[in-house]
Structure formats: structure tokens, C-alpha cells
Design goal:
The complex is a heterodimer of chains A (233) and B (287). Chain A is α/β, with parallel strands linked by helices and 233 residues long. Chain A has a single domain, classed as P-loop containing nucleotide triphosphate hydrolases (Rossmann fold). In chain A, helix 3 packs parallel to helix 6. Chain A is globular and about 45 Å long. Helices cover 72% and strands 2% of the residues of chain B. The longest helix of chain B is centred in the first third of the chain and has 30 residues. In chain B, 54% of the residues are buried. The chains are: A alpha/beta (233), B mainly alpha (287). At the A-B interface, helix 2 and helix 3 of A face helix 6 and helix 7 of B. Chain B: Belongs to the binding-protein-dependent transport system permease family. LivHM subfamily. Chain B: Keywords: Amino-acid transport, Cell membrane, Membrane, Transmembrane, Transmembrane helix, Transport. Chain B: It is a multi-pass membrane protein.
């Protein structure tokens, strides 16, 4: 497996354990959805992978190299890109400057910025505008492009469709598929579980910080018990 | 009414000089998220470093200004590493209080080394110019030009250099900046060095027109703080704008107040801004 997290236990403090032994894997180019009720530990798991969670036990590795215990900066340098749900752009900086900061550790940021402008024409159009002036959908595209500046091997997306119109969300999911097609593994946390299951290759359903069910997205989406319990019928 | 053009010119000049340390103060707030009141003593240290270079080594004003920048930057960085950085994890208030203690220590070190006497820079005596009824000294014009050049340099570095953009990124969103591989400790150190260098250079520029003593920086801490608050704490263009507002406001206050009450303008500006626009004139935009 390209990415492997085994028996991950952790939280924001020693007394506040949210993840209680999670095991999640992803192969190259695979879209893996992580769904579950509020408080299941979905977003916390992504933070654990990026190194921002202060308390962490277990084993997380990327291509056989251990990630836990490293600083977020070092994890980013190893090819892990994270798009937080909120505050995922530099609001006061222009679109182009956001991409430059996304590519701070990239070997050829100018080339990557050109590629991003080609892939996301709306960003090229808005290159001189401050990120805070973008619409919600444009901001999510920018956040994704910032993450893609370093040619990541593992992309972590925390509720990327939150607050987007259905059209913008559909376009965003299409973009995620295109990214995965370039052999980038995607871990996708989504509040809209049905959308996530329909687009992913594999999914983990979590409850109370533990693995509940694992399977292909289509299989889980079709399971009547899963639909009733986790997808609202 | 004849006085108004003269007061406006004086206000613009003193506002531009005040902007330099105010930019330093607000830059530290933007990146490290606490008000560092040790700028008072660092302004004094810069003024004395410039004095030592100018009077002791016989250097002209501009190289002495570079010495003021370097010495204040290095002392600011060293004192931050020793006294303030270890306390920052305990919160902004803790760090702010520690910075007040630090400024007292540093000020007394200057007093120990140079004594309490007033000292003046060794500058050529030149006659003031009189332009359309407004009297202005060549040294004032040079100081204004230096302040504008320094400000332009700061803005250009923040706008165009990689590390300047990284400083703005950390000021804007420190968590995201670290996730993108920007080292917040390195950026913090650079910010402290540059900001305290600016404060030191500002201290010397403010002292060039008068004389200096160990309380030089302390006398300017209120207008510096007021400039940063008026412009929006953490906003570098805001600090420049706020300094202009405070500088011009202080001079225009002389129309109705005794010079002894000039410093009240800083207090009034802070009160008005906190009452009607708490985020300051330009908000919290780092750049």
C-alpha cells in the first residue's frame, strides 16, 4: 500500500482521545472516502496524518517511510498535501501569491503555477485578486490548486464541497477524479456521504473514532443497512 | 490659520519618521501575535548605536543609520530568543508583559553604558529653507527622504521577495503556512530582526532632529502604539497611515493645546479607533 495508517490513537490532548485505533490504507491513484457521523474522528484523522495533532500513537507511513513524529513542514516535503475545511487559503494574498506559497518547497514553482493556471482557467483570470474576494467555489478550487503545487503523492481533502452549490460541487468532484488519475492518492472526508461514496473507489465508515465498515464505495452506497444508519435512508 | 501649512508639513515629516518603528511594531504583532513593547528600548538602542557610529566613529548620518538598524536588529533578535520566545507559548498577554520587563532591563543597560545626559548627533549646521512661508530644515527633508526610502524598501520586500511573501503568509494564516513548508520559527526570527532594525533606525531618525537620552524610545512608545492601533494592528500599510494620522494630529493639536499635551493625541486616537472602528483604518491586512 502506498499509504498505511495502523492503530492510530490520538486527539487534541492526552485526556481528549478522539481516534481510538483507526486503520486506513490507500493505494496510488485511489480515492478513499472517510465518512461517518459528527465526532467520528474524520477530520481529526486527516490532521493526524499532516502532523498537526499534538497527541498521536500508532503508525502512519507513506511508501514505507514513517510520518508520525515529524513536523507538518517535513510531512509536506514528503509529498502530503492537505486542504483544510476552513482557512484553506491566504485570504489577504492574491491568487498568484497563494500559489507561490503553495509551491514554497516546490522545485519549479513558476512552471507549476503555469500548469495550475492552465488547469484552472478561473484562477488565471483572477490571478491578481485577493483570495478573500473569491466565491466559495473559486476558493475551494484555489485551495486545491495550492495543494497541487507540490505535486503531492497523497492529497487530504477535508469536506471540500462544504458550502458549495451543487454545480460547483460536481465540478470539484470532477477535478478530484482528474487529480487521482495522475496516480495521486486522495483521502476524502465528506459530510455529504452519498456523494463521497458514489465518487470514491473505497470507503471507510467510522464511528466514535473506530473503523465501522470498509468496502467499495458503490457497495456501501447500495447496502440498505448502511443507507439507513449513515446516509439518512 | 497661517500656522496650518507649517504644522501640516511638520506633521507629515514626524508621521513619516514615526511610521518606521510603527511598521516594526505591527510586523511583529502580525507574525508573532503579541504587542512587543520592548520596541521602546530598541528604539533607544538604535538611537545610541547611530550616535556611537556618528559621533564616535565619525560616520555620516546614512551609514550611522545602517549601524542603528543592524545593532537594534541583532539586540532585538537576541533578546527575543532569550527572554520572549520561551514565553510565547503561554499566551500573548504573558509575552507582552515580559516585553515590558525586557524594555526596562535594556533601557537601564543603555543608561549604564551612556549615562543619563542628553546627547546630540554630529550633524552640519545648515540654515532652514523657507518655501511659500513654510520653514523646513534640510536635515528634516533628508530624514523624510530616508524614511520614505526605508518604507519603499519594506513594501517592495514584502511584495516581491520570496521571504517577504512568506512573512505575509505566516501573518495571514500561520497553520496553513507551516503546512505548505514555510518554517514559522525562521520567519519569526527574520521578522524580529527586520522589525527591531526598523525600530532602531526609527529611533535614530526621531532623535536626529532633537537629542537622545535613555528615555528616547520610551517617549515614542505611545505614538508608535497609537499609530499601529489606528492603522489596524498587524497591518503594515495601516501602521504607515496611522503614523501619518498621529503625526499630523499631534502637530495640529498645537492650534488648540499646549505642546505639553501633544502626547494626548495618541491616547485620543486609540480611544476613538477602539470606540468606532476597533479593527483600525485598514483592518488586519498584513500587507
Amino acid at each position: 500500500m502506498m499509504f498505511q495508517a495502523t492503530d492510530v490513537v490520538g486527539g487534541y490532548s492526552a485526556a481528549d482521545e478522539i481516534l481510538k485505533g483507526l486503520t486506513i490504507t490507500a493505494d496510488a491513484g485511489e480515492i478513499v472516502a472517510i465518512v461517518g457521523p459528527n465526532g467520528a474522528g474524520k477530520s481529526t484523522f486527516l490532521k493526524a496524518v499532516t502532523g498537526v495533532l499534538p497527541e498521536l500513537k500508532g503508525h502512519i507511513e507513506l511508501y514505507g517511510t514513517k510520518l508520525n513524529g515529524r513536523r507538518p513542514r517535513q510531512i509536506a516535503q514528503m509529498g502530503v498535501a492537505y486542504v483544510p475545511q476552513e482557512n484553506n487559503v491566504f485570504a489577504t494574498m492574491t491568487v498568484r501569491e497563494n500559489l507561490e506559497m503553495g509551491g514554497y518547497i516546490a522545485s519549479d514553482p513558476a512552471q507549476r503555477i503555469s500548469e495550475m493556471f492552465e488547469r484552472f482557467p478561473i484562477l488565471a483570470e483572477k490571478r491578481g485578486d485577493a483570495a478573500r474576494t473569491l466565491s466559495g467555489g473559486q476558493r475551494q478550487i484555489l485551495a486545491m490548486a495550492i495543494a497541487m503545487m507540490v505535486s503531492p503523492r497523497l492529497l487530504l481533502l477535508d469536506e471540500p464541497s462544504a458550502g458549495l452549490s451543487p454545480i460547483a460541487a460536481t465540478q470539484l468532484f470532477e477535478t478530484i477524479r482528474e487529480i487521482a488519475a495522475q496516480q495521486v492518492s486522495v483521502l476524502l472526508v465528506e459530510q455529504n456521504a452519498m456523494d463521497a461514496l458514489n465518487m470514491c473507489d473505497r470507503a471507510y465508515i467510522l464511528t466514535a473514532g473506530q473503523n465501522h465498515v470498509t468496502g467499495s464505495g458503490a457497495h456501501l452506497a447500495a447496502d440498505p443497512d448502511i443507507r439507513r444508519t449513515f446516509l439518512g435512508g | 490659520m497661517d500656522l496650518i501649512p507649517q504644522l501640516l508639513v511638520n506633521g507629515i515629516i514626524s508621521g513619516a519618521l514615526l511610521a518606521i518603528p510603527a511598521i516594526g511594531f505591527t510586523a511583529i504583532f502580525a507574525v508573532l501575535r503579541f504587542p512587543n513593547f520592548s520596541v521602546a528600548s530598541l528604539a533607544t538602542i538604535g538611537a545610541f548605536a547611530g550616535y556611537a557610529a556618528n559621533v564616535g566613529l565619525g560616520l555620516p548620518a546614512v551609514p550611522a543609520l545602517v549601524a542603528a538598524f543592524m545593532v537594534a536588529g541583532l539586540v532585538g533578535l537576541a533578546s527575543d530568543e532569550i527572554a520572549l520566545r520561551p514565553l510565547r507559548p503561554y499566551g500573548a498577554l504573558t509575552a507582552a508583559i515580559a516585553s515590558i520587563a525586557l524594555t526596562i532591563v535594556l533601557e537601564n543597560m543603555v543608561r549604564f553604558g551612556f549615562g543619563n545626559d542628553l546627547r546630540g548627533y554630529d550633524l552640519p549646521l545648515v540654515r532652514d529653507w523657507r518655501i511659500m512661508g513654510v520653514r523646513v530644515g534640510p536635515q528634516q527633508v533628508q530624514n523624510l527622504a530616508l524614511a520614505l526610502v526605508i518604507m519603499a524598501g519594506v513594501f517592495a520586500a514584502l511584495k516581491f521577495s520570496r521571504i517577504g511573501k512568506a512573512m505575509r503568509a505566516v501573518a495571514d494564516n500561520p497553520t496553513l503556512a507551516e503546512l505548505k513548508g514555510i518554517d514559522p520559527v525562521r520567519v519569526g526570527r527574520l521578522t524580529v530582526f527586520v522589525a527591531m532594525g526598523l525600530v532602531g533606525a526609527g529611533g535614530m531618525l526621531l532623535g536626529l532632529g532633537t537629542s537622545i537620552d535613555p528615555l528616547t524610545g520610551f517617549r515614542f512608545i505611545l505614538p508608535i502604539f497609537a499609530a499601529a492601533v489606528v492603522g489596524g494592528l498587524g497591518s503594515i500599510p495601516g501602521a504607515a497611515l496611522g503614523a501619518m494620522v498621529v503625526g499630523i494630529g499631534e502637530e495640529l493639536s498645537l492650534l488648540v493645546l499646549s505642546p505639553a499635551y501633544k502626547s494626548a493625541v495618541g491616547f485620543i486616537a486609540i480611544v476613538l479607533v477602539l470606540a468606532f472602528r476597533p479593527r483600525g483604518l485598514l483592518g488586519e491586512r498584513a500587507y
